[in-house]
Structures
1.
Amino acid sequence: YRARLNFDTSFTGEDRLRIRFQAGDNDNALSGGVPSGLASAGSGGAGDNVRLDDVYYSFPIGSRISAIISANSTNSDDFVTSTIVPFDGPSVADAGGPLFYDRSGVDGAGDSFGAGLNIAFTDNIILDAGYATDENGPDATEGIFDDYEFIVQLNYLSDGLIDAAVTYIDGEDDGGGDEAIIAGLLNLDFGGFEVAGYFADRDGDESWQAGVAVSDFLGTGNAAGIYYTEDFNDDEVAEAYYSMKINKYWTLTPAVIYGEPDGGDDSLYGAIRSTFSF
């Protein structure tokens, strides 16, 4: 399980100061058989403790620029305007979102300071940029310019057929690791029937995803989808899910998830995620 409590404060009506507390079972369930585990896995540390999960401030700069400054828990995909693929959110497995965002080779990037900008050149063309570090603070051995990761993503977001983006991610850790990622994301929306996926390259290693999704399937607010993902380590994940909005407080998502870690045994799971929001 994962439980979150958000405290949001606004000073101008357009900004947000968020402080989030989170508790969980300290187990990314299915991670042994399904690479990356579940999308909603999260913990408060050992023994189901409550931890301070998010501290960030987001605010506009004029009419076309927004900014975010974070004290912790801001990762690459938190800086982007859109992850493009429609499986990110409704899917039960974490592989529904683009896995390459957190695969730069910089362990812990986003655990400490982060800052980013979103610049809307037009209503459809948006540039995202973000910088995240591993650790800083009274007990840290590195500062904000030692272990780091940065992301730049250029988006084309339409109200019609095509949503697309190109992404560049790079970084450096204390071991000198520096593995750049170049990726492209695409979503074709045929009036609620979407065909989507991505392709990413990291120093010759490839990761990709392809699938289809249907919005408002058998009811307003529902979402169905099926996709296949392969990460840089040749781990494979496939999932079929159906997200049902029972009411404004409760969403139920049954799913069938297939996983095959590289060199490991394949596994097939049935899973049901129940989400309560108040």
2.
Amino acid sequence: MTAFPNLPSARSCLLLVLLLFALSGCAAFRSYNAELTETINLAASGNPGAAAAALQKSHRRKRDLLYYLELGELQRLDGRFEDSQKAWLDADKAVQAWEETAKVNPGKLLGGAAGFVLNEKLGTYEGHDYEKVMLTTRMALNHLARGDWDTARVDIKRTHERETVIENLRALEIEKTEQEATKRGAKTAFKDLNGYPVQTIDNPEVNALRNSYQSAFSHYLSGFVYEALGEPSLAAPGYRKAIELHPDNPILEEALSGLDARGGGGDGKTDVLFVIESGTAPARVSQQINLPIPYNNKLLFVPVSFPVIRQEDPGTLPSAIRMGGSTATPTVVTSVDAMARRSLQEEMPRIMLRGIIRSTAKAALQYEAFRQDETGLAGIAVILGSILTESADERGWRTLPAQIAIARARVTTGTPYLEVDTPSGTQRIALTATGRYQVIALRMLRGRLFVMPPPGPPGDKPEQQASTPSTPQTFLAATR
């Protein structure tokens, strides 16, 4: 076992623990999930503006990547697409800086395996891989909601580039983690972690994913945008990739097989893509597990916390959408819930390695405290301090939807409304089908339906786009 030559005295141990108790009240030790509960409840009640205000109030001191991710989502629900895009641009600056470092100096991001001695929450939040990719995808949706198809195309291209950066960095990280674990004789297989709910991140749905950051929805959306902009040669790879990520899905396969037949337009129809989202992304909660750590021929039990995915309600999708005599059935093509679980599965080896290294240091401190203080008070204080400060990082983009479905229909241009079949009945929404292609976004958040209509299709004149309402309509669609 590695020696720790500069361990503090018994008196220093007591002072250290007092400091840890003081630190326990700071932001680094708060529960992010608990903080987001009020925010999500306000949004689900139909008041995303108040939810954004609550988020801003709770982040007065520190506004980081995660703050801007959440804020942009809430403002999007509120129909404030300009504000939402500003927030997401701030978030994207942080992710772009991360990307640049990943390209030129990946070792800096991989860092030391020791992590943080006290608590991983003290580290800068870099975002989970699926969040980085979802950011540019949702920025593209914002551009489509404002009728800016060309800029949506730019964000779609950046989504693909971001996936490549993530893929390359994670390959290096796996190699480095394995090397470090071998050198230290540490086990990093979460399946061997007694007391950990393995089934939450190791199940058929999660394991069916190719990785945690590529989604069928993102690639289908790229295909649709390229098709709308008259670039079928680029649309086909997008549809094809979506099929690879979610095979045997008829709506994805039809998009590719019918691509040539749909070209040309001019038949008085609008090709409408409905993007239907429900629920919220799952929460990470901290679970402590006592690990046996050998030190100086003694077996000491040290608490180590690991993040666990908590089961969330994925929400309820509409059973059908009708517009202009056409009926479409939503089909789930991406589970953000499953992506979040796969992300944690991929992160667990390095989380475990850092936890083992951290617990070894705490075991050494505990041993020396008992050895130097005959009363045992210093040792007990160290144990209490370890329990108090040991908490897993619970941070994550919680306002993302749990699942994303799509539906597609050719609708008579000029149709003035759509109907959405919800568990509590049919909602009729004033929204006109315009242009050759259109994207309409809907979000089911607990008992409420948000509809975010676009201002116009590609090719519309600015005055035509400005005449269409941009504020989303909300409906009480169900109660539970």
3.
Amino acid sequence: MLATNRSLVFAICGLALSATGCYRAIGPQSVARDRHLYAASLSDSWKEQTLLNIVKMRYLDPPVFVDVGNIVASYSLVQGISATGNIVPNNQTPDATVGGFGTYSNTPTITYTPLTGSKFIRGLATPFPPEAVFSSIEAGMPADVILFASVASINGLRNQEATLQGITPADPDFHRMRALARQIQLSGAVRIEVKKEAGEELVSFMTFRSEKVPPEIQADIVELRRLLKLNPSTTEYKVRFGAVPSNDTEIAVITRSILGVMQTMAAEVGVPSEDLARGWAFPGFEHSKAVPGVVRLIRIHSGKSMPPDAFVSVKYENSWFWIDKGDLESKQMFSLIMMLFTMVDTGPRENQPVLTIPAH
């Protein structure tokens, strides 16, 4: 019977130990959980910051960028148990006192870096290198989307532009040109190669394949050459930055900057009519209305309440702004501008925070 009493006490002790706190994996076991959660939080925060800055630019409010510098997760888990008492024979109730305790703490340290250095600002305002734009097309990004978002003009064909006076429509042949570029890209009849010329300058060359090309794609290539005023007997064309080509074997491109792309998107934010009437925002797309001759780059809605199911949403002034989760074209264009941030060569960041981690 003494053994039975002892078993009872040990069982009570075990229950107390297991109840000293909800177990959570720490150490190596926490990587799988924390890496996913922090990545999701950073992604959501980055999307919200990007959308907020686009909305602010519609209201002529300067954009502000803040980056997450470091994340240091620190965990501690302390558990313990105490037991006192007397074991008595003859089926008498054991006299025992059992106690347990447990503490768990998670104290992450996160540093934020305002991106306001001169190199970063120059990177935002500097046009994308043509070789970066065309290399992304060679890598498989949709040519029509890339050209629509990042190119201001190509061989004299002007893209639509947003100004304080409103949106200027693109040349009629510009949209036809980018549609042809997408069809030719899907056929595999075009190749873009980045080479180094004299002075170690990177230059892009676009080459059209002539063998085993379907007749309809050959017709698209002929039309594309005509729109861009390219020499029909040449297969390789040099891509360079500029307003007009120096000859008919060049493709002169004026690219946009990150701020230029955001300015174009800002003009298409669905601003509430009362804000436009007060003159708080510059002219652009009115709420749920089209602009003659202008193709939408992105659809950003607005309303007085938070949308229940949005791809990304932010609140600015007294309104909510969001992109619908089911609007695949707008989601693609919004994701593209986030990717374009990686093309900006800002160099080493200035005024980096110094993070000191105490050793215990």
